[in-house]
Design a protein that fits this description.
Strand content: 15-25%
Radius of gyration: 21 Å
Distance between the termini: 53 Å
Helix content: 25-40%
């Protein structure tokens, strides 16, 4: 029995190898967002998504439980949380995130951080790569915040 070998040549050209195709394939940087529509983190990431269309993929969720589902099985670069002013101690909710994903960078954006317990902020900063920022009221300050997010978390894009 003779074995037939298929030729990959089509006319005078050859089909690209797997290595050639893999070099061209790139996945967008993945971010998980936990915030309400038009919340503080949603506003910041909306600007980032517009600046980096096609290079950033944002999974929007409304709860930490939904975010944990997204994190399971996905390579997420950063988790971004929008904190509402009416939640008494929302940063304690991140304990389960920190246990399951201790190396995941976390960015928290709030309208006003003055109401949050400084000890809780300090605790979160000590336990993980964590940063908490306020959503600026002035557009020039918002631009600086977006620049900070891009430089710190999206530098690989």
């Amino acid at each position: 029995m003779t074995r037939q070998v298929r030729s990959t040549a089509i006319g005078n050209s050859k089909l690209p190898t797997f290595e050639d195709c893999a070099k061209k394939l790139s996945c967008p940087l993945q971010i998980v967002l936990v915030d309400q529509l038009n919340g503080p983190a949603d506003i910041v990431l909306d600007i980032v998504a517009r600046l980096y269309a096609g290079s950033v993929s944002i999974s929007r969720t409304g709860t930490l439980a939904e975010a944990l589902d997204v994190l399971h099985g996905n390579e997420i670069a950063v988790a971004v949380f929008g904190l509402p002013d009416d939640q008494p101690n929302p940063l304690r909710l991140m304990d389960s995130l920190r246990v399951q994903y201790p190396m995941l960078p976390v960015l928290v954006v709030s309208y006003d951080l003055a109401g949050f317990d400084p000890a809780v902020l300090r605790y979160n900063r000590e336990c993980t790569e964590f940063e908490a920022v306020e959503l600026p009221a002035r557009s020039v300050d918002l631009k600086l915040l977006v620049d900070l997010v891009i430089a710190r978390y999206l530098d690989a894009v």
